[in-house]
Amino acid sequence: MTNRGRYSYASSAMSTINNPRRIRRRKDPTPFNILILGTQNAGKTSFLEFLKTALALPAKKQGRKQDEEAIQASIPPVGNFIPHYLETEIDGERIGLTLWDSEGLEKNVVDLQLREMSAFLESKFEETFAEEMKVVRSPGVKDTHIHAAFYVMDPSRLDRNIATAKLAASRNGYPNGKHGTARTIGALDEDIDLQVLRTLQYKTTVIPVISKADTITTKHMSVLRKAVWDSIKTANLDPLEALGLDEDNSSVIEEESDEAESDEPVASPVSAGHSKRLSTNSIRKHKSQEEAKEEEAPFLPLSIISPDLYEPGVIGRQFPWGFADPYNEEHCNFVRLKEAVFTEWRAELREASREQWYEGWRTNRLKHRDLPHAR
């Protein structure tokens, strides 16, 4: 063992290199990157600020503010996309969360905006591709892919879309009765909403969200959610297809139905009149179940309430007739959104970004590079 005196050449700087605390402290958090987009005045920036508050670590667990500021400074803005970085902890895992704010979409320039957005998403793939092409790769390279995107929709605009679609249907597809075809499919606008979903379809997982749930009634929100989901299905889109959630859900439903069937007692022989009465009751029960199923809102889109920016210390919105609480599941779906995206789907979203979106882009990139005219 080296005897270190006051002027010893044996440095003591490495004496703590195997200290477990030092190792844990130096371990980088797992990156998780979210893009937030929507039309102007849809409430996306308010939603972003609420996410920062809702996902922030408790004060006693927060690290040095200088560290987060240093990481924030290392993530520069890209055009109209502004990053907001924070560290959080989910299920015991440290997460380096980057929320990217974007410019509000406008109908007259949405084509240019989506082109810029598509280039932004692909630039993250380009960073990974450039690193993979190196002979000696840089240590500690982080995953910068956009793992998911929240598409925030204003309920008032959805109402206008539904009204336009109904008017067009009453006039055989012509919104003004004379010329021009309808550009809406149910609650979604073909020029903005569906174009956003189609443009980002193979680059990230888009999660539709309806904002301002405190401005409409519960029934109104249920109708809007169903209308949006019906429009997405009509357009042959499935935002969660890459995560394989439908198959899992269907298998669970099948298992539950099998268990229910096995638990049912075997009916004993009864008289004809009694069996007729039973069948009538079962039909009524079946009809009521079908009606309840039709009225039940789909999982997507999710509804949210963002806190009032004029009351920074209050999580929610105070009205003369009551308080709108984003954490109350009867008021909106924010709790469900937080649990699903940041806890249940986090691993699947990262995997889909790497195994499907990036690999698809990379394959296409290599094909174009190998073409004769590309040389």
What does this protein structure show overall?
This protein has 375 residues and is of the alpha/beta class. It has a domain of 261 residues: 3-Layer(aba) Sandwich (Rossmann fold). The chain is 46% helix and 14% strand. It contains 11 helices and 10 strands. The strands form 3 sheets. It has a 6-stranded mixed beta sheet with strand order 2-3-1-4-7-8, with helices on both faces. It has a two-stranded antiparallel sheet with strand order 5-6. The protein has a two-stranded antiparallel ribbon with strand order 9-10. A hairpin with a 2-residue loop joins strand 5 and strand 6. The longest helix has 25 residues. The radius of gyration is 26 Å and the shape is globular. The relative contact order is 0.12. About 11% of the residues have low confidence. One of its GO terms (molecular function) is GTP binding. Pfam families: Septin (PF00735). Keywords: GTP-binding, Nucleotide-binding. Belongs to the TRAFAC class TrmE-Era-EngA-EngB-Septin-like GTPase superfamily. Septin GTPase family.
